[in-house]
Fold this sequence. Notes:
By secondary structure, the chain is an alpha/beta fold. It has seven helices and ten strands. α2 (about 65-80) runs parallel beside α6 and α4 crosses α7. The chain has helices at about 20-30, 65-80, 115-120, 130-145, 165-170, 185-195, 215-235; strands spanning about 15-20, 35-40, 45-50, 55-60, 85-95, 105-110, 125-130, 150-155, 180, 195-205. Strands 5-9-8-6-10 form a five-stranded mixed barrel.
Amino acid sequence: MTAHIESKKEDIAKIVLMPGDPLRAKYIAENFLEDYKLINSVRNIFGYTGYYKGVRVTVFASGMGIPSIGIYAYELYKFYDVETIIRIGTCGTIHKDVKLLDIILATSAYSLNNFPLLFDGDTDKEYQSTTNLNKKIILKAIELGNSIKSGKILTSDVFDPYVDHEKFMNNFPKDNFLASEMEAFCLFYLAHKLNKEATCLLTVVDSKYDKRSLTSEERQTSLNDMIKLALEATINKN
């Protein structure tokens, strides 16, 4: 056990799906996994381990932001021998060709955050996700008939819909970023540092270019597609 995770090592699978919201972890366990059990509830950060089509999988919430995912991803990798973490979350798009409810596969994440510097003196601002894992997700998306977009994303320390978009974007390189979220950069860094695997699937729920209000049914249907894609990709890991 650690200060933040009460699970025994054998309670946690080698593959972890990591939503931000603890209640989404609960939803995934209840709706997608068989023979699941609650393996963590410290600070109401819920973790569940069960089976998807015979493959043992853990779903473990990260909470919001880099400091929170930094704790849970590090402890899972370092102390629980987790090999692969797939972040599954929501994002806002900052790209005119990305639409609401699109699914994005993050090939890298850029951030101004200083987590790597404070963690071990590292100064890079962009880290890649795991290429082989991404290839398996892309192949599974084709098989399932899911349309996904893959590319670079931003990881921000602020919820960018609350700030001036032009000022916000002036802080970053003029690159072809598909979306903005708040956790993936840290996850990719820790995977790089600890020689583990990580990637990130995101559902677009906010757009600078489309101010429609999504219905709860629209959101859930798209999130279910993303969740299923991540789970189906885990089958190829074993």
